[in-house]
Write a structure and sequence with these properties.
- This protein is of the alpha+beta class and about 140 residues long.
- The protein contains 4 helices and 4 strands; from the N terminus they run ββαββααα.
- Strand 3 and strand 4 form a beta hairpin.
Length: about 140
């Protein structure tokens, strides 16, 4: 079946899922199945942070700083969830609801302030520098 709607692949760590429609990716963002640190691609080769593709981000995720905006998010999440146990989906009804609310706001606020995605590149830099230090040390002591 051929459609005009764009297809997206989602990269979660080293695992690739999809293809999904833009609507499905937005729905999965609302439900937390796709996180703001995941990457997306149209072709499965060129990847970018999902937060850098505005057409994929549901409107309900754009105004989490206000109580009204957060309530819109909770309502949309409840509407999109296929499960019937609404206590699972509505963070403010949990005993730690305020911390869940703050976590969701913080996750998305970091991305909207211009962060480039996950911390993976920084951790790779640390590993690379550590390995370089070991190689230099071994070379200077003749241990290689």
């Amino acid at each position: 079946m051929v459609t005009d709607e764009s297809q997206w692949y989602v990269q979660k760590g080293s695992r690739v899922q999809g293809p999904y429609s833009a609507h499905e990716v937005g729905r999965y963002l609302l439900l937390g199945r796709v996180r703001n640190t995941d990457r997306v691609s149209r072709d499965g080769e060129l990847w970018e942070p999902v937060t850098q593709v505005p057409e994929l981000i549901p409107e309900e995720l754009l105004d989490l700083d206000t109580d009204v905006g957060f309530q819109r998010f909770v309502d949309a999440r409840s509407r999109e969830d296929q499960r019937r146990d609404k206590s699972v989906v509505e963070p403010e009804r949990r005993t730690n609801g305020e911390s869940m609310k703050e976590q969701i706001r913080d996750d998305w606020a970091v991305q909207s302030e211009g962060a480039s995605g996950s911390a993976l590149p920084w951790s790779l830099l640390g590993i690379t520098l550590g390995a370089l230090g070991i190689v230099l040390y071994l070379n200077s002591t003749g241990g290689v």
